[in-house]
Amino acid sequence: MTPLQRYIVEEIAADHADGLLTRREALRRLGLLGVGTTTAATLLAGCSNDGRPADQVPSTSGSAAPTPPGMSTAVPATTVTFSGPDGRELQGAWAAAARPRGTVLVIHENKGLTDHIRSVAGRFAGAGYSALAVDLLSEAGGTATFTDPAAATAALSKIPQDQLVADLRAGIDELERRAPGKKIGATGFCFGGGLVWLLLTSGTPKLAAATPFYGPFPDDGDLSGSKAAVLAVYAALDARIDASRPGAEAALHRADLPFEVFVAPDADHAFFNDTGPRYNPTAANEAWRRVVDWYAAWLG
Question: For the CA atoms of 258, 262, 289, 278, what is the dihedral angle to 10 degrees?
Answer without folding.
Answer: 140
